[in-house]
Amino acid sequence: MADLNDPAIDAAYQDVRSDKTDTNWLLLDYKNDRSDKLMVTSTGTGGLDELRDALDDGKASYAYARVPFANDKESTREKFILVVRARCLAVATIPNL
Questions:
Q1: What CATH number does residue 60 fall under?
Q2: What is one Gene Ontology biological process annotated in the Swiss-Prot or TrEMBL record (predicted)?
Q3: CA dihedral 55, 60, 64, 68 (to 10 degrees)
Q4: Domain membership flag for residue 66
């Protein structure tokens, strides 16, 4: 079970949830390869594109993001997503058959 006891994790989570800040994502990584302790790696205000750029293929990560959602011009609201990213050890290329 992952250790989420670091107070910085709750602070970053509350920051993403708040309508009063521009922070719209947080990224958590394990302290090291053998640890179950998670830590805040980074936070940002640049949306999902910025979050994607912050991900590291060599790490298993968790991200939480606030994204705008709209049915039309007058109806917008915020949605929250949890991203679970598995560690990518190798990438195989399959030739066209």
A1: 3.40.20.10
A2: regulation of actin filament polymerization
A3: 50
A4: yes
